[in-house]
Amino acid sequence: MKIYTRKGDAGETSLRWNQRVPKDSVRVEAYGTVDEANALVGMALAALPKENAEPLRTILARIQRELFDVGSDLAMPPEREKGEKLKTQEAMVTQLEQDIDALTAGLPPLKRFILPGGTPAAAALHAARTVSRRAERRLVTLSRQEEVDPVLLKYLNRLSDFLFVAAREANRIEGAQDVEVIW
Questions:
Q1: Which of 41, 147, 158, 165 could form a Cys-Cys staple with 96, CB 3.0–4.6 A?
Q2: Integer Cα distance of 100 and 40 in angstroms
Q3: Architecture field, domain 22-76+87-173
Q4: Taking a C-beta distance cutoff of 8 angstroms, is the pair 166, 60 a contact?
């Protein structure tokens, strides 16, 4: 299979079921931003140490698969004549909340805002968090133009919360301190 098709050379791409849209459409922008967040989660995984990070690695690997589902759902035209259901489910949001609670229980309480950074893995997770927030904003814009399933917005909102906590956990794993903002 060739990696290039030449079908996008004129500035259009295909949604699911071959519906053609401009590459700068809000829908394509939304799922492209989800893809960016996924790549940054992969960068964080690559930067995490092999020891003491297995629980976080397992969650992040699951999230990468879930982000593919979110992107796939966003690539589905709003007219679901084919009757296909979303892959993104409320249970995924609930699982993120449980992951947030579990990781937070092992972290020192926050007293102030913290600067994004620390270890390379934490920095990548903070970057993924900001990109997931951008994906959420693109999805809000899309929702003003056409119907968007609310579970997609919930998932991206909760994901950014999770990525913040995961960045703190990545710092904890490697013994790095979160740096508080000094006003």
A1: 158
A2: 19
A3: Up-down Bundle (1.20)
A4: yes
pTM for the model: 0.93
For residue 78, the one-letter residue type is P
Q: CA–CA separation, 98 vs 162, rounded Å?
A: 10
Long-range contacts of 146-153 (CB under 8 A, 24+ apart): 146/78, 147/78, 148/78, 149/73, 149/86, 149/88, 151/86, 151/88, 151/89, 151/90, 151/92, 151/93, 152/70, 152/73, 152/74, 152/86, 152/88
pLDDT in tens, 20-53: 786 788 999 999 999 999 999 999 999 999 999 9
